Amino acid sequence: MDPHFPLPKSEPSANFLHIIGTSIASSLANILGDEVNQVVYASIEISTEGPYDLELAVPKLGAVLKDMNPSEIAAKVAKEYTPDELIEAVAASGSSLSFNIRSASMMRQVLEIIYSTSQTPKRGYGTNTLGNGKRLVIEFSSPDIAMPFHVGHRRSTVIGAALSNLYAANGWDVTKLNYLGYRGTQCALLAAGFDKHGSKEKLEKEDPIMYLYGVYLVIYRDFKAKEGQRRDDTKQMVKDYFKRLEKGDPHLIEMLQRFRELSILEYIKIYERLNVQFDVYDGESLVSAESIKDVMDQLGKQGLLIGVTMEDGRKSKRGKIAALKVEEGENKHEDLLAKDLALAIDLNEFKLGKPVLQNPDGTATPILRDIAAAIDRYHKYHFDKMLYVVGNQQNLHFAQCFKILSLLKDCPFDASEKLKHINFSQVKGMAIPTLWPSANLVFLKDILDSAKEMMMKRIKASPEKFETIEDLELTSDQIGMTAVKVQDLQAKRSMSYHFDWERVTSFEGDTGPYLQYTHARLCSMERMVALEDGLAISSLESIDTSLLLSTPKAREMVFYLATFPDVVRTALKTHEPSNLVTYCFKLAHLISSAWETLGVEVFVGRGEKEVAEARLLLYACAKNVLGSAMKMLSLTPLERI
Ligand code: ARG
Asked: Where is the DALR anticodon binding domain (predicted)?
């Protein structure tokens, strides 16, 4: 059988481990029969401990080999496998097979793949074509208009940006969407507050979000004040605004439109600083009334709506309805509305409660808006998949949304297959500003400014280490940003963590600054040998990679570089950018520990230019992979620090 016969999803020209997997699969097919080919390919794994590189648990072939004994199969394979250009040794231990890759082939081929793909950055090393022809819509960040951006939005932004890049790296066509929140009560409060206390000049001149938030706090205090303590008329005023808002009062709509525009301009600044771009600024207020009505009509037709009364005054802390009194068995939604009931859907059989879709005054709740928005987006983008990167406090909300969409007969897509909530835990030690403000708020801008300042201090404290910095401000900001982002990405999404300034901004240990430092050090080494020794890689043909064979560290590093394309696939499957962060750290450790035994300059001095060149190629490839992985995490790898 042709050893390079491409197996499903394999990309031998871009992934050395696929070349190896294909070759092992074909050798085993020769020994055991063609039917094992694919299952062998899919079952080979990287050994977690030496001395072998790869492993195959023979029982995994059970389904195709039926009644043969796994240990006997392993022994037979070990005996009959003929070492070749790619595999130099095969051993059996019980029912497990181990393989060692021939070092010379690995050195040459891996470095060749990395070097040649780095010449075509569009299809850089690590990327693949699995998602070609498929479209992803990814919604992330989604702050509420005129409200500051807080830590929850930050983690969504950082995870969402990394996932967008990962999907693009896996060949998908990605549309990044920001669904700006629009909370009725909050907007009514804000509009009332602005008319009463606001100043148009200040709004245009100052940081509009912070300014509006200030206005909001003033009116909020009035609104929440006990009767007699402050202006009692505020409550009535807000109620009036709320009514006007629901009726579509042009003055209010225009005012909120302006708030929205100014908010977006402000968010864009933050996103630029974070190296994140959106394709679409969508929003809760932009969901079409027609789609909302269609959803309700359809649910009504299917007999899924029930009327409920809302017991006022029993609202939970976050403003959600805590108590519902249900009147079952009524399904004609016009009748229900006429009776001044809210409309809900009973999802108890799925253990998802009875979410309210429409308030007694006819307005849509956030769930109904999300349902209609999903349908609108499908018509617009025809996505194959849509992700919502939102904190885990909204698990129930999305489970309800997706369930309702899958119950909806005329939903144009299969919600259970196409929609996914990418949730994450909250960062501890940082309060989230809410509609109901608390005293200890932490805003993103403050965090980024503090990170920048801390980095600047650290850099100034050891000038000898950072002498090549050209723009201290910018570099400090970028390292600070890396520090914060890496901290957000490094834990699995389900893990919450304590924000720890000391740890985050350290150049030692597994931190963002350490990654930047490692990358910049590789760049600086390249610059130095080019300048002082005229050493640079001009073509691959002239480089003798076998000169790297005497150094075990070089082999270890090359093998690790070979695993990168599969890490990119796995991180997508698990939706865990943390897989990529872990990869970066391990690679940075390998690079750091290689410095001692794998110098470049010293060989130039000794006249061994070929060795120096081979080592330079290895470091250039390591730098390329570290840089690509960092970029996928939306970090900007620095060339000098
Ligand atoms: N704006 C919301 C918040 O700040 C998040 C929106 C999440 N996305 C959605 N489609 N519901 O908490």
From this structure: 515-641
Q: Supply the pTM of this predicted model.
A: 0.91
Reported as a single tens digit per residue, the pLDDT across 162-204 is 999 999 999 999 999 999 987 777 788 888 889 888 999 998 8
List the structure tokens of 427: 């960062």
What residues have CB less than 8 Å from 555, skipping those under 6 apart?
A: 103, 106, 107, 548, 549
All structural domains of the chain, each given as residue ranges with its CATH number in brackets, are 16-101 (3.30.1360.70), 135-180+285-422 (3.40.50.620), 184-277 (no CATH), 449-632 (1.10.730.10)
| Strands 96-101 and 305-310, bridge-based pairing | unpaired
Dihedrals phi, psi of 88, to nearest 5 degrees: -100, -20
Q: Please tell me the distance between residue 366's alpha carbon and the centre of ligand 1 in angstroms.
A: 9
Q: What is the DSSP letter of 90?
A: E
Closest residue (by CA) to atom 4 of ligand 1? Answer: 143
What is the spatial distance between Cα 186 and Cα 231, in angstroms, rounded to a whole number?
A: 19
Neighbours of 10 (CB within 10 A): 20
Closest CA to 371 of 287, 285, 282: 287
Q: Which residues line ligand 1 (CB under 6 A)?
A: 139, 142-144, 179, 181, 370, 388, 390
Distances (CA, A) of 482 to 487, 543, 570, 592, 639: 8, 35, 23, 19, 14
Q: Is 130 exposed, middle or buried (0-12, 13-18, 19+ CB in 10 A)?
A: middle
- 17 close to 11: Cβ distance less than 8 angstroms: no
CA atoms within a 13 Å half-sphere pointing along the CA-CB vector of 416: 5
What the block records as the tokens of 478 is 């970028």
Token pair in block for residue 473: 């401000």
* Pair 340, 333: CB distance under 8 Å: no
Q: CA 491 to CA 577: how far, in whole Å?
A: 9
Around Cβ 261, how many Cβ atoms within 10 Å?
13
The Cα 12–Cα 7 span in angstroms is 9
626 within 8 A of 512, measured Cβ to Cβ: no
CA of 143 to the centre of ligand 1 (A): 7
User: What 3-state DSSP class applies to 619?
Assistant: helix
Q: pLDDT band at residue 429, thresholds of 50, 70 and 90?
A: low
